[in-house]
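Query form — protein Eukaryotic translation initiation factor 3 subunit D

QUESTION: What is the three-dimensional structure of this chain?
INPUT:
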Amino acid sequence: MMNWRLTHNAYYHQLATRESRHSLFIPPVFCFRGRDYLRVLILVVCIHISYYCFQYSFAMPEEVPHFIPPEIQNNPFGWGPCEMPDQFKDMPYQPFSKGDRIGKISDWTGLSQDKKYLNKYQSQFGGGTQYTYYHEEDENTFHLVDTTRVQKPPYQRGRHFRQGGRMMRGQGGRGGISRLPGGSNQFQSLGKLNKLQRDRKNPNARRGWNNKQGGRSNKNNMQMKSRDASVTVRADWNTIEEMDFVRFSKLSLPTVKDPEDLVCCGSLEYYDKSYDRINVKNEKPLQRVDRLFHTVTTTDDPIIRKLVKTVGNVYATDAILACLMCCTRSNYSWDIVIEKVGDKLFFDKRDNTEFDLLTVNETAVEPPSEEANSLNSPRNLALEATFINHNFSQQVLKTGEARYKFEEPNPFVSDDETDGEVASVAYRYRKWDLDNGIVLVARCEHDSVLQVPNGDLQFLTIKALNEWDSKLSGGVDWRHKLDVQRGGVLATELRNNACKLAKWTVQALLAGSDYIKFGYVSRVQVRDSSKHVILGTQQYKPTEFATQINLNMDNAWGILRCIIDLCMKQKDGKYLIMKDPNKPLIRLYDIPDNTFDSDNDENEDEENGEKSTIPAELLPPNP
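ANSWER: The structure tokens for Eukaryotic translation initiation factor 3 subunit D are given below.
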């Protein structure tokens, strides 16, 4: 059956001749061909397997094989199992793909700013989605959704607009990967995450972080600042109307005629022209002027109380009107109290509030930090700006000389008042006809007067712009740019303080000032808010400056008229207008009549024989 490679004679012949000393000695019984050798090997293996199986069969006890049928669940209403097996109940399921690359472990946060390994170890089925909370809404909130395809703008159609590189399976669908803002979906340590969050809240650190990234900041990673309302909305307040700024921007009232002066009172000091020659190299320290400033609300004004009997049906001050007319530029929250008595409206500000404080960098891209203890917090900057504005408006005047006096004295100064010197201020009570029976009476202010060479008098509105930290307020250093690029400095202030400058311009226009003068005041040291220097001055005509800052007075009058018409439709009572702290809209609330009335005010009114800030003859008769 097998072919021998060597015969016995050949074998003995090989031993005898010894042709090669390296020849392999192979017995004749193992000298097979290649296929014969394989057959013998298979035969030996089969014999061994049979032997062990024979022994194992005697060692195992005899068992009768039997078939156990599985439990079949019948689903008469569809296909698939009817219920979840007990061993799989309440067990989270992590979707996965067998094509995922193993290499990234324990990605607890799913965040990273490192885009180098964006898709290398990225899961194709959204990791961690089994722990996501889904709010189940009832059917009462069901509403139809418009599924019409939205036409993308041209700048979103390019290939550079697509986020995230390659498209992965399961992305965006059920169980798909959910990207975080900015397209980041990589691993990041918790310590680094907390540090980045702190840096983004800190303007200094954020500026350095942006510089490391080549000067580009990711707007998607910037957190929206949640501001507090100027007054807490109570449960018994009813919301009457919400007015968004988009609708306000479309209003216009071009038919407002020139105002009519009713009463002029107070006295003004003359402006010192030497302050027009101040520059950065010839700076002048800001002095502290100890004078009294009266910020009396509408219903506490004795002149308005007299005018109520004969003139007008809407009453306010220039500061309140400017706040309403420039509301579309405001970001911070504010509120104004409105009292309707018969067919008359009174616009008031609440006592002991921050309404009269000047905001700083309200409209900037990066407003001041909200840290209460910080030197540059919004409130501390507002106090500093108000302090600077009061002192600057009095320092640039010729003190000790004769004042220009109007026909009537200052209505807020009594003859026996000796608390201190009153600031240079004059008041004009003016009347505007807004059509449809609306007659507005408002108190306006002048800060100074200037006598020109031909002998005419020009009334001035004096305001101060302050620099607190050039690195945090736009990056324009006044000491380097003010003399050579004054227009660039003013443009930065228009961007950062658009609302404040617009209100100043409206106040100057309402008062009829011939010029509005701006002073540039800066800190001596960045970290010291108590010492300042005057670096320069600049003046504009209010009408020209309004055009430069894109202030449309027709739109401003339209906004005011819209608010007046809305309040006139309401019943007699007290109302409140408040700017939403986080949304571009204002709300009108119906509030109880005793809101904001303190016990101290009531006691003072009783001692003076008055029970309300509204004149008694205008109150509705008692039932």
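ADDITIONAL NOTE: DSSP finds 14 helices and 15 strands in the chain.
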